[in-house]
Write a structure and sequence with these properties.
Elements lengths: L7 H35 L2 H27 L13 H28 L8 H23 L6 H30 L3 H29 L9 H9 L4 E13 L2 E10 L5 H15 L4 E7 L1 H5 L11 E5 L1
Parallel strand pairs: 2-3
Antiparallel strand pairs: 1-2, 3-4
Helix pairs in contact: 1-2, 1-4, 2-3, 2-5, 2-6, 3-5, 3-6, 4-5, 5-6
Length: 312
């Protein structure tokens, strides 16, 4: 049995993620207070909606920061894969929070529909423009890692929703300033909610799939099996299981039966290289079954001692 797998790249990535999240959290929490106070003083639901969404940002960024810190901890005897799943839990909770805020915005907007409140647009516009630059800064901080982990993706989605909200508030402010049409404030709030919900739903689906140990959406198990069976010396591949430990760390286990004249170690090296290089599956466990086992049609034959395992 051989085992060659290093978590150093994953750990360095997560240390960098913690720094990104720390900066984004500090910037967002400071501005949230300014926006909430201004929204209350100017009677702007759109601005308060943006502040409420920023409160969710702060909560989710803190959660992501905590999850990112946990993910840097090394595996131990009780958590043999480490704490990578904390990132997925963080993304899932953030998604639930976003859905809740979106529903609140829709309900609040409906309640004001028949009696729009007059909004003090000048300070509202000033804070909204400032918020736009704040969100652009946070988006730039998180952008480099947003496609690597669900944790950062959730935080990035929060910030992008806020950025859109700031743009919407600015547009609403300009319209109200020149026309006095205060209903646009409600329309912007509804637009923000409608933008958030479908994107958050996709995030929740991704988190749920990982937590339920479903196959990664970017890997076809049938195509993986076919590719493995094309390797010289492989007679059959069965009991293939592919799952994600976290967003960017995939694992696979399978049973492999050899041709009668095949040399196990050579075949295993080729199959492992194929899985890791072409399918980006970092952690592989392959159990080899002797050809007699496969010819008897007994998939569990490998457990009786006529087998060997290799991990990568």
């Amino acid at each position: 049995m051989s085992h060659e797998h290093s978590h150093s790249n994953f750990q360095s990535l997560r240390h960098e993620n913690v720094k990104r999240l720390g900066w984004a959290c500090a910037i967002t929490s400071s501005f949230m207070l300014v926006e909430a106070i201004t929204g209350y003083m100017t009677n702007s639901l759109a601005l308060m909606a943006d502040a409420g969404h920023m409160l969710a940002d702060v909560a989710s960024l803190l959660l992501a920061l905590l999850a990112g810190w946990f993910a840097t901890k090394n595996p131990n005897s009780k958590k043999t894969f480490g704490y990578y799943r904390s990132e997925i839990l963080s993304g899932f909770v953030t998604g639930i929070l976003l859905i809740g805020i979106s529903i609140f915005l829709l309900v609040e907007a409906y309640g004001r529909l028949n009696s729009p409140v007059e909004v003090n647009t000048v300070p509202m516009l000033f804070v909204a423009v400032l918020g736009l630059f704040i969100n652009l800064g946070c988006a730039k901080i998180l952008h480099g890692a947003a496609d690597k982990t669900v944790n950062i993706k959730a935080a990035y989605l929060e910030v992008m929703a806020d950025l859109l909200a700031s743009v919407g508030v600015i547009i609403a402010g300009v319209i109200m300033l020149f026309t006095g049409w205060y209903l646009v404030d409600l329309l912007v709030s509804v637009g923000i909610a409608i933008w958030i919900i479908p994107r958050t739903w996709r995030l929740l689906s991704e988190c749920t799939n990982i937590l339920m140990e479903g196959s990664p959406t970017d890997i076809s198990v049938s195509e993986l099996k076919i590719a493995m069976e094309k390797v010289e010396g492989v007679r059959e591949i069965h009991d293939v299981h592919v799952w994600s430990i976290t967003s960017d760390l995939k694992a696979m286990s399978s049973h492999l039966s050899l041709e009668a004249d095949a040399y196990a170690e050579d075949v295993l090296k080729k199959v492992t290289a194929l899985v890791q290089e072409e399918f980006q599956i970092s952690h592989t466990t392959i159990q080899v079954e002797e050809s007699e086992c496969a010819s008897n049609g007994n998939n569990s034959c490998g457990h009786n001692g006529k087998s060997q395992k290799i991990q990568g």
